[in-house]
Amino acid sequence: MSLRDSLPRFANNPYYILLVSVATLISVPLTIVLYFESQHNRDLVFTVDPARTIIARAGGPSELKVEFKGDVIKTDVVGVQVSLWNQGKGSIRASDVLTPLEIRLNPPAPILQVSAAKTSRSVIALTLENDAGLLRQGRIPVTFRILERDDGGNIQIIYAGPSDVEISLVGVVEGAGAPRNLRATGWPVREKGPPSRGDRLFTRLFPWFYVLFLFVVPIPAMIKHLRHRGPRSARDVILLLTDCLMFAGAIGILFIVFRWFPYVPTPPFGY
Fold this sequence. Notes:
Number of helices: 6
CATH class of the largest domain: Mainly Beta
Number of strands: 14
Strand content: 25-35%
Distance between the termini: 68 Å
């Protein structure tokens, strides 16, 4: 008697085999996600809005001059928004900051104006130090009283320099290390801002249509071949391998397409 014949009848059912396989594929990543969700860690993150606003361009008409506190600005004047917040479950207090936090522009570009456009709560006391010397170096010291989960703020920066200046948040938080940069990914973000309503709708509906395709085309074909009893012809083997490759290819394409989807990190407290 073979091992397959000794198993209970339901264990040989292809639907049962498929169900066990799907449950296994779901349970492994779900276990990992639940484990990390249970950890009370600190996680200070930041994101730079990819849609920057050019307030004034260099090389305009000679009669047009841009001045700031009496000084003529000969470069572009750009506005950008930086958001920072605590994405972890553990609170971050001022005493947990081992190395002072600073927003830095690289290469250094003089900052003309900086302000906290929005904060999650007033109790966090998010403060931006307006030190003239540091602002000329493209540096903005950032302090706060406490950041609980999803606490943070949006910081509006106007600087004189090219629009592709790299902006980062540096410093060290106990138990979290340096702040993490949540970069925008996927299709290039339009100059007007984040993905359109159509993009978001496509992102939400596409996975469901794709799953429907899997259950209509490759999965039923695989079940049909798995239910086959007796010797298989070369044609049956080729068809089974083709269906398996189609299923694996469909899953692979799904992951690739998801990497193309536009993703712009959004603060939990909004803009």
